Amino acid sequence: MQLTPDDTIVLELGALRLNATIVSTWIVMAVLVGLSWLATRRLRPDAPPDRWRNTLEILVKLIEEQIHAVTRRAVHRVMYFAGTLFLFIAMSNILALVPGFKSPTGSLSTTVALTLAVLLAVPAFGIAHGGPRQYLAKFGQPSLFLLPLNLLGELSKAVSLSIRLYGNVMSGAVIAAILLGVAPFFFPVVMNLFSLLVGVIQAYIFAILAAVYISSAMADPPTENEQDCAP
């Protein structure tokens, strides 16, 4: 049984090998672009709202509210990044319900790539907010002796994010395979609904954690008065 889409070769042309992870990623991006075009093709101030526009506005508003609950700094810029992560992961897991489609989030290479994007975004947002000196100074707080531990903490974020998403997607695939072997006529519907719920939750958790890390990088350092008042 092949669990990861990396093991499935879809097209092979000499040295060029396209596995299911790459093809599935292209499909997810194409679906998102197509849905975005459908939702915005008639987006004008004088045009009456249709169901596509209403759905888009509700989705954007929900994402904005969740980001605003995490950080009040550059909400829209953080929302663009974290919202994109949420939509990509959620759509990848939703399309996994389609027979024959292998979710790219079931590949460790995809989850690591998403995590690297978050790790690059964290210093980018932090430096854009307070400058490189203020951002780098946080790694030496409260003492320079803790610099290695602070750097190790940044590395642990990458490991936790990638392993969490990959592990949850793969565990769902293993459970589904076991239950399908036990009761192939009853459990498919239940497992599809369960996989859909877990996929959306994982997309939400990943996006919120990304927003939390970015918010932490954009936080202003404590003032001398705040440090004196700290227990």
pLDDT < 50 stretches: 224-231
What is the share of helical residues? Answer: over 70%
Number of helices: 7
Helix-strand makeup class? mainly alpha
Largest sheet: 2 strands, antiparallel
- Rounded to the nearest angstrom, the distance between the terminal CA atoms is 56 Å
Broad shape: globular
The secondary-structure element order is EEHHHHHHH
- The oligomeric state of the chains shown is single chain
Query: Which strand order does the major sheet show?
Result: 1-2
Structural domains: how many: 1
Count of strand segments: 2
Using brief descriptors, characterize the structure shown:
mainly alpha; 2 strands; 72% helix
In short:
With 231 residues, the protein is mostly helical. It is built from seven helices and two strands, in the order ββααααααα. The protein is globular and about 55 Å long.
